[in-house]
Structure formats: C-alpha cells, structure tokens
Amino acid sequence: MRQVFRAVMRSLVALAAVCVFGPLRAADAPLKVAFVYVGPVGDAGWSYQHDIGRREMEKHFAGRVQTTFVESVPDNADAERVIRQLAVAGNAMIFTTSFGYMEPTLKVAKLFPNVKFEHATGYKTAANVVTYESRFHEGAYLLGVLAGKLSKSNTLGYVASFPIPEVVRNIDAFTIGARSINPAIKTKVVWVNTWFDPGKERQAAEALIAQGADVLCQNTDSPAVVQTAEARGIAACGWDSDMAKYGPKAQFAANTQNWGAYYIEEVQKVLDGKWTGNRATVRGLKEGMVVVTSLNKSLKPDAAQLFEQRKAAMVAGKLDPYSGPLKDNSGKSRVPAGTTMTHEQLMAINWYVEGVEGSVPQ
After folding, report:
1. To which H or E segment does residue 116 belong?
2. For a designed S-S bond to 91, which of 31, 34, 36, 184 qualifies (C-beta 3.0 to 4.6 A apart)?
3. Where are the domains of the chain?
4. What's the rounded Cα separation, in Å, for the pair 76 and 72?
5. Radius of gyration of the CA atoms of the chain, in A
6. 69 closest CA partner among 91, 39, 36
7. Which of the four pLDDT bands, split at 50, 70 and 90, describes residue 14?
8. What three-state secondary structure class fits 71?
9. CA distance readout (Å), 328 to 137, 158, 359
10. Rounded CA gap, 303 and 296, in Å?
11. The domain 136-249+290-347: what is its CATH number?
C-alpha cells in the first residue's frame, strides 16, 4: 500500500513540475515535439500530409528534435485527454492538427503554460497558443476552373465533411472558379459529417453521380471519392494529398498542402528561444503552403494554359476568388463590387455562393 501511495505521489509531483516549470530537458537532449491527428496516417489525405511535414521537420533537425504522434483522435473529450498526456510526457511543443481540437487545446494550454501549442485551422490564440492554416480555397478555386472546363453535364458534385467555415469556403471557391468558366454550372453537396470514412465518402460520391454530376470534388480525407470516379469513368480532384495512384485517369489535379516548411520554421523559433504566442499564420499559393499537383496529361492545352494564368494572377495578388460582386444562392448581395472579403469574414462564412444548391446545415 505504501508503494502505491509513493508511486501516486511521484506522479502528482511530476505533473505539478511540468505544469509549473514546463518540460525539463538537458542541454544536449532533443526537443520533444508531438502531433495529434484526427485521422489515420495512412498514405493519403489530411493527416498523411501533416505527417509528411513532421518527418521532413525531424529529418531537417537531425537528432536535435524528437517527434511523436497520435493518430485517429476524435475531436471530443478524447482529444483533451490525449493532448494532456502528451504534455505530461514532457513534450515542449504540441501541434494539434484539426479544427475540432481548438477548445481541448486551449483547456490543456491553461494547465501547461510553459508548453508551446500550435493549432491548425482554428481562430483562438493564447499566451502559449498560436494558430496556423492555409488559404486552401485558392487551390479549390483553381480546381473549380478546371472542373468548369471538364464538365459536360453542368453539374459538379462535392463530398463535404463538416459544415464549418473552412469547408464552406472551399465549396464556394470551387464553385466560383467553375462558374467563371461556365455560369450555367451548379454544384450539389452531400455532407457526410466525418473527416474519414471511406464507406460514407463512396456512398456520397455515388449519390452525386446519380444526380448527374460528372466532376467530383471533396473535403474529406480518404481517396474513396477519386476511386469511385475512376471506376465510373468521370473526373475528380484529389484533396489534401496527391491521390493520383488511386485514380490515374480520374484525378485531373489535387489540392495539397506543404506543412514541412512551417514546422521547421516554428521549431527553430523554439530552439532559438524566439517563439511567441498569440499569433495567427495564414499562407497560400504565394508562400508555397498550398500546392496544386501536376495536371493530368489528358487535360486539353487550353485548360492547362488557363489554369497557369489564373494561378500566376493569384500568386501576384491580382486575383482573389472572394472579390465582389458576389451573391449567395438566394440572390442576396454578399460582397459588393470593388471589395474583397476580409480574413475575419472568411473565417466565419456560413453561406453558399450563387450556383451551390441547398443551404449550409446549421
């Protein structure tokens, strides 16, 4: 009984020390950095792409940094438990890589003020919490431009995960891009309410095809949509990572992200003692965080040329998908001519642009 009591007391003392003083590290010991993923690492999708960045960062620092990750962590109470355990384990820096981890990250950060927390796609910061995200809608717009050139039925299909602003932004930008080519195009959306469920994603893709969609896009993590398109002989875009191996004929391009450069930059700040909280980083095509993969060679030259022109204009700051005039799908003016949506407005968007059918679920 005494041994159990002593063990419990040692654990409590260790926890208190980490909370108050932060992770203790010998001068020559590697910096411990942890990652929390919402889906399985696998070989495609959101978590896979973040893990590529983690491995790139660890390789860059060659023994000065030691990383670990926990995959398939749901964005509920489990997330708070996992994040807390990683802090207790002595990780000096923790990256939580999904929107739903925002509140759990903030709660744990209050308990561990000397641990650095970085949250992907959220909008709340603190003295030891920063956020980071990409302007992923830029890539979605470019995929929409190609979809507008490819569609013969004037109907696009979009498999969506959760009705949060980052997903709505991508659906809208995809549609804006497509309608800049063909104003008759409509986008149909099926919400699956999950980030990763190949079965549901496949069913949603089939439902959209049954409704006449001949080009598919997605904001989910598995390659099921691309696989379905390949089997049905239609076009699709990869998402978060290059999914061409699952649909070499179907995938006309993929909207991906390069996280490695950002992870290297942020870890270097910690090693140099220059990391600060209460920051928000947003990067896009110009900064190389958003990367659209090589185009399928089956695309017609005029489509590829137009894609490159629009991409160059966006990188140069001459094109913004959310410049007015823009109306929502009820005909209401949302962005007047001569104005552009602010970052804050984009972070809160909850309406469909003209051309998207239905309404955003509440």
Report:
1. strand 116-120
2. 34
3. 2-134+259-283, 136-249+290-347
4. 12
5. 22
6. 36
7. very low
8. coil
9. 17, 17, 10
10. 11
11. 3.40.50.2300
